[in-house]
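Contributing new records

If you add data, match the layout below exactly. Sequence lines come first and carry their own label; structure lines follow with theirs. Keep one chain per record. Anything else will be rejected by the validation script.
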Amino acid sequence: MTPPEPRHREPHWARRFDDELVGLDPEDPEARAFAQHLDRMQRDRPSFTVEGYLDGVKDFAESANRAQGGRYWAAVLVVVLLLVGVVWVVGNALVFVLGTWL
């Protein structure tokens, strides 16, 4: 007889949140979601580095994936507008470079 496989469990909240989450069940999905929210809110990272900017983009993408309804479509609109801006700038740069060299 083989021992049962351990279930994949989401990580519990960090010990630093014990005071804020006193009395909540660590197995409760809503309590875990709140602990993850606290972790995101109190995360300290460099903001003026490439890594900091990429973490900001990662946070935006994760929050957009969690969003529903109007917030989701607002996030999609922001991304589309950013991509349109990038395409416009790159197109103008190519026209300028090709116009200068030709």
